[in-house]
Amino acid sequence: MKKLLIAIFSMMLILSLCACGANTTEGSNTPSADSRNQSELPDEELFNEIGGTNSTKDGGYEAFSDARLEFDHYVMEKSSEEEIVMYNQSLVLTPETEVFDYMTPLIYWGETLDDEELAGKEIVLGLLAGEEKSNQSADLQKESDNRYTMTIETKKGEQIVIRVEYNPDIDALRLVAENSGEHALLFEYAKTGDGYAAQFYFNAIVGGTYGAQNKSMCVYKTIFSGKDGSCARFDGVGEPVSLLEGVPDEQAFIDGATHWFTLKDDKFTGELDGTTF
Question: Which pTM does this prediction carry?
Fold first, then answer.
């Protein structure tokens, strides 16, 4: 239920900020910006109560996402010291815009769907589909304690099915998305001691000329622990071995990649766009 409430709170926060920005009335009786914000923004105590700043949950998609974001930010920060990485890191960092729509269930509900979230699903689904949205309809079904399915019908006539399966014993997740019966995305992550491994498999943009995109079935892989880790992209390959069956060591995980880099002890090594460093 906390994940649902956080989503609702986020929407309230956005609407409140928009209202504050639109209120530009001048005059001696106009409240200060600080007083307006205090009166119009949702109560901070509510945010804390639903877990916005006091989450005690160990593991799960949110913990993985936070750790990965921290690692990616550190890579971007350190890339200024290695020109090849600075200009070519996008070759191996997952293009979020290409997979965002298929990651929707994890963003709103996380790795599992509890009964309270299922009962209140229409609140969030109303943000995703409707008259002024790109989706015609959306639905959510709980298959078991650790499995659920989201279905979406777009206004273009696409039928999207997204299945989420979570293994709490090893803190590993698998998401499979199909668009009108065709493979759209495979995403997995798995805990690795004090770090994570993850992979995305989809038809990705790998180049283009004169406005025409070149696409290929690619696997984007990342494996990291703290500030050390590796990112890689494999072009023109088939579906990878599932991480739910076990995670290989770092070198084996990225071996044979088309593009890759490793960051260890604040130093980069790798091969990006045909250049070794």
Answer: 0.80
Q: How many angstroms separate the first and last alpha carbons of the chain?
A: 47
Helices 2-22, 33-40: axis angle to 10 degrees equals 150
The SS3 call for residue 144 is strand
Q: How far apart are CA 183 and CA 192, in angstroms?
A: 27
Predicted pLDDT at 24: 42
**All residues at 6 or more sequence positions from 134 whose CB lies less than 8 Å from its CB, including other chains:** 154, 155
Give the Cα separation of 219 and 238 in Å (integer).
8
Q: Is it the case that residue 29 has pLDDT exceeding 80?
A: no
- 81 phi and psi angles, rounded to 5 deg: -95, -5
Long-range contacts of 41-49 (CB under 8 A, 24+ apart): 41/13, 41/16, 41/17, 42/9, 42/12, 42/13, 42/16, 46/9, 47/9
Q: Is the dihedral angle over the CA atoms 63, 199, 256, 261 positive or is it negative? A: negative
Report residue 167 as tokens.
Answer: 């293994």
pLDDT of residue 210: 81
Q: Say if CB 166 and CB 172 are below 8 A apart.
A: yes
